[in-house]
């Protein structure tokens, strides 16, 4: 099966507390899971039957071996997972307190391998030809990944479907202004953008979903997706806009819900669905992930999404 989606960006090993509602200091045991936004999105797309790969890097350690093995287990190609010889595969601890929005503790010092992507790591023929390319805001937070991702977008030439996950994490940036310049600058090179209100404000200077969508469409996007939490999801195209209500679930862990949403967005775009159907489907996928513990392991199947819908 030929590759349908290539995601580019973060990878790591998530360590989830097996005790919920307590501070990190009181956690006694953790469960290991594959993590990182771009990686989780690829896994979520693969769960829905899409042929996916992730372009990223790990360290020359046991966790790096685990990442490749886990990707294969999820039917995601590890062909473009490189190795940064002098760095360690990142680990991330989360604290399920509160479960809906768990604090994260990133171990990515002095820099994460996935932010050391260079031109030599990139499969340029895939970048040009793959039906869907997925890039992230974090991917332009530092060099050399910043210049590499910029060249990737320039090479792609705004081909359909080129998707930007706004993916703003404050700890990866020196200032909001720097993040706005770098993340906002990518809007001129993509066809789709997806993010929450905070991420939209970082990218285009306003947290108002409609105004943010207007500003994105003015930059030439064909689809803007603004996640509004309990108020649902706004989807906007040059031809119209719609708000899809949220799916109500009991939240176990909010982490990874956006990545489940992203994988379903990929599936919907590649299927040629209309924006409302895509948003409803992605909403359901995100809700199912939020009702479970872990990220990659929690990504739903098409049958599970259809059942919730």
What does this entry look like structurally?
The chain is an alpha/beta fold and 309 residues long. The chain is built from ten helices and 14 strands. It has helices spanning 37-47, 62-73, 124-129, 145-156, 176-185, 197-204, 209-218, 257-271, 275-290, 302-308, and strands at 5-8, 12-17, 30-35, 52-58, 76-77, 81-83, 91-94, 104-107, 132-136, 162-165, 192-196, 223-227, 233-237, 240-244. Strands 1, 4, 5, 6, 9, 10, 11, 12, 13 and 14 form a ten-stranded mixed sheet that branches. Strands 3-2-7-8 form a four-stranded mixed sheet. β4 (52-58), α2 and β5 (76-77) form a beta-alpha-beta unit. α1 packs across α8 and α8 runs antiparallel to α9 (275-290). The longest helix has 16 residues, at 275-290. The radius of gyration is 18 Å and the shape is globular. 50% of the residues are buried. The model has no long low-confidence stretch (mean pLDDT 94). Belongs to the carbohydrate kinase PfkB family. It comes from Amycolatopsis heterodermiae. Its EC number is 2.7.1.92. InterPro entries: Myo_inos_IolC, Myo_inos_IolC-like_sf, PfkB_Carbo_kinase, PfkB_dom, Ribo/fructo_kinase, Ribokinase-like. This is 5-dehydro-2-deoxygluconokinase.
């Amino acid at each position: 099966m030929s590759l349908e989606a290539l995601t580019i960006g973060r990878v790591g090993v998530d360590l989830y507390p097996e005790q919920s509602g307590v501070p990190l200091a009181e956690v006694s045991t953790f469960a290991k899971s594959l993590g990182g936004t771009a990686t989780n999105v690829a896994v979520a797309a693969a769960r829905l039957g899409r042929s996916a790969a992730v372009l990223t890097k790990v360290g020359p350690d046991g966790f790096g071996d685990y990442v490749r093995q886990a990707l294969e287990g999820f039917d995601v190609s590890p062909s473009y997972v490189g190795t940064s010889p002098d760095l360690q595969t990142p680990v991330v601890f989360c604290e399920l307190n509160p479960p809906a929005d768990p604090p994260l503790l990133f171990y990515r010092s002095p820099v994460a391998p996935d932010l050391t992507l260079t031109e030599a790591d990139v499969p340029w023929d895939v970048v040009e030809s793959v039906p869907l390319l997925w890039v992230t805001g974090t991917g332009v937070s530092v060099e050399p990944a910043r210049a590499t991702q910029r060249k990737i977008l320039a090479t792609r030439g705004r081909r359909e479907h080129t998707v930007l996950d706004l993916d703003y994490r404050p700890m990866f940036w020196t200032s909001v202004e720097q993040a706005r310049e770098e993340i906002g600058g990518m809007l001129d090179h993509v066809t789709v953008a997806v993010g929450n209100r905070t991420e939209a404000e970082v990218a285009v200077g306003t947290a108002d979903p409609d105004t943010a969508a207007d500003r994105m469409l003015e930059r030439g996007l064909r689809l803007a997706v603004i996640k509004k939490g309990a108020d649902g999801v706004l989807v906007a195209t040059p031809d119209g806009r719609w708000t899809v209500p949220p799916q109500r679930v009991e939240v176990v862990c909010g982490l990874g819900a956006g990545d489940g949403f992203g994988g379903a967005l990929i599936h919907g775009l590649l299927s040629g669905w209309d924006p409302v159907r895509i948003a409803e489907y992605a909403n359901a996928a995100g809700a199912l992930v939020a009702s479970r513990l872990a990220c990659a392991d929690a990504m739903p199947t098409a049958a599970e999404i259809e059942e919730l819908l």
